[in-house]
Design goal:
By secondary structure, the protein is α/β, with parallel strands linked by helices. The chain is built from 12 helices and 24 strands. Bound molecules: shikimate-3-phosphate and phosphoenolpyruvate. It is found in: Cytoplasm.
Length: 448
């Protein structure tokens, strides 16, 4: 679990051109789901390319606590012997989900329609994040939640002994909430319906169909209407986890701002619910070629050739694009600082309830690096200083947030003076090989 060890300061210095191939690890969202859906199937699910980041390891541990057999066979190669829908056993101890919002929210959904009680906690970051967005719909199934003020962890969920199916319109664009409701719906008799006005990442829907659930998505005037038939017998699957586009974002953006760079990033998801950053970068004038489009692990992917792009322009990011790039705003705001003119990011208030308040963390750190920022509750505006224009020479606070840590280290690779982060330890939650991979491309990263 992250955030309980010692802080690990790290510094990035202006780096030589980045060259080579950046093979990033497996997708975090799909890795969590492979373990959880595998635990809900009857028989053995085999997984390759699993992200062995701390967030996913915490979910693996939780699945064991609920009775599934989870085994590592080699790097990225795992199996899950599932207990079937409704087959969870009550855990004997508190479930610690570490730093992971996805882990805790999806697992709460999964156990909420089974007659058992489970208590969840997490690190100092996760204990600040709102759980009401999940426990509100879970209450409609008949589950009860007892947490700290404001719906915070630690929290005990008493699962519904006689769950009823639910029809729920998502009040916020959140794949975690959507997935929690679908997972709860698995063990409710009849049809559970989730309606999302704005499309969010659709891995749960795709994978549930793969595992044999009866799930239908209709696109109507109210948005996506997702209908799931309860109490299916899920069939174990072989899951090949594709690479994580949210991790790929870091080498891609580093190559765009470090002079002379030319790198290849293989197998980046082009799933329309995940590719908002890449559309945005192209609109800003980034030199990215999308090579060999194909399908891998059920996801559309392409190899990205990315070159230093010295004349990117700030743009207004369409707010409706936010769900497809929600985790990429921190690194986009770094690229924006190296573009000409303002980049305007509106409709981004969800960033305030991630591992940290990401609007505040990016604004304070970029200001310390000499960049002019405007912000309000729902908006971040970065006034770009052009290629090589960021002064740097500051230490950013990462607040137990892996994406903030990686974003400022990327900034330091192109800024005039080094940029440090007070704590790089959270990077292990999503991208444990970040330091080795970036150094291998030619980045100058130093511990301390
Ligand atoms: O469902 C998922 O796997 C995720 C959904 C998103 O969160 P929200 O559902 O809170 O937007 C995202 O930020 C997170 O990193 C992963
Ligand atoms: C928001 C994130 O993850 P989670 O919500 O799972 O903690 C993220 O990885 O950027």
């Amino acid at each position: 679990m992250s955030g309980h060890g010692d802080a690990q300061p790290m510094t990035a210095r202006k780096s030589g051109p980045l060259k080579g191939t950046a093979a990033v690890p497996g997708d975090k969202s799909i890795s969590h789901r492979a373990l959880i859906f595998g635990a809900m199937a009857v028989g053995e699910t085999k997984i390759t390319g699993l992200l062995e980041g701390q967030d996913v390891l915490d979910t693996a541990k939780a699945m064991r606590a609920f009775g599934a057999e989870v085994t590592q066979h080699g790097p990225g190669a795992w199996s899950v012997h599932g207990v079937g829908v409704g087959g969870f056993r009550e855990p004997a101890d508190v479930i610690d989900c570490g730093n992971s919002g996805t882990g805790v929210r999806l697992i709460m959904g999964t156990m909420a329609t089974t007659a058992m009680t489970a208590t969840f906690t997490g690190d100092a970051s996760l204990r600040k994040r709102p759980m009401g967005r999940v426990t509100d719909p879970l209450a409609l199934f008949g589950a009860r939640a007892y947490g700290r003020q404001g719906g915070r962890l630690p929290m005990t969920i008493v699962g519904a002994a006689n769950p009823v199916p639910v029809r729920y319109a998502l009040p916020v664009a959140s794949a975690q909430v959507k997935s929690a409701v679908l997972l709860a719906g698995l063990n409710a008799p009849g049809e559970t319906v989730v309606i999302e006005r704005e499309p969010t990442r659709d891995h749960s829907e795709r994978m549930l169909v793969g595992f044999g659930a009866e799930l239908n998505v209709e696109r109507g005037p109210e948005g996506h209407v997702i209908t799931l038939k309860g109490r299916p017998e899920l069939r174990p699957q072989t899951v090949a986890v594709p690479r994580d586009p949210s991790s790929a974002a870091f080498p891609v953006c580093a190559a765009l701002i470090v002079e002379g760079s030319d790198i290849l990033v293989p197998g980046v998801s082009q799933n329309l619910t995940r590719n908002g950053l890449y559309l945005t970068l192209v609109e800003m004038g980034a030199e990215i070629e999308f090579l060999d489009p194909r399908e891998e692990g059920g996801e559309p992917v392409a190899d990205l050739r990315v070159r230093f792009s010295g004349s990117m322009k700030g743009i207004e990011v369409p707010p409706e694009r936010a769900p497809s790039m929600i985790d990429e705003y921190p690194i986009l705001s770094v690229v924006a600082a190296f573009a000409e003119g303002p980049t305007v990011m509106r409709g981004v208030k969800e960033l305030r309830v991630k591992e940290s308040d990401r609007i505040d963390a990016m604004a304070r750190g970029l200001e310390a690096c000499g960049v002019r920022i405007e912000e309000d509750e729902d908006t971040l505006i970065v006034h770009g200083m052009g290629a090589g224009g960021m002064p740097g020479g500051a230490t950013a606070k990462t607040h137990l947030d892996h994406r903030i840590a990686m974003s400022f280290l990327v900034a330091g690779m192109a800024a005039q003076k080094p940029v440090s982060v007070d704590d790089a330890s959270p990077i292990v939650t999503s991208f444990p090989i970040f330091e080795a991979l970036m150094s291998g491309l030619g980045a100058t990263l130093e511990r301390g």
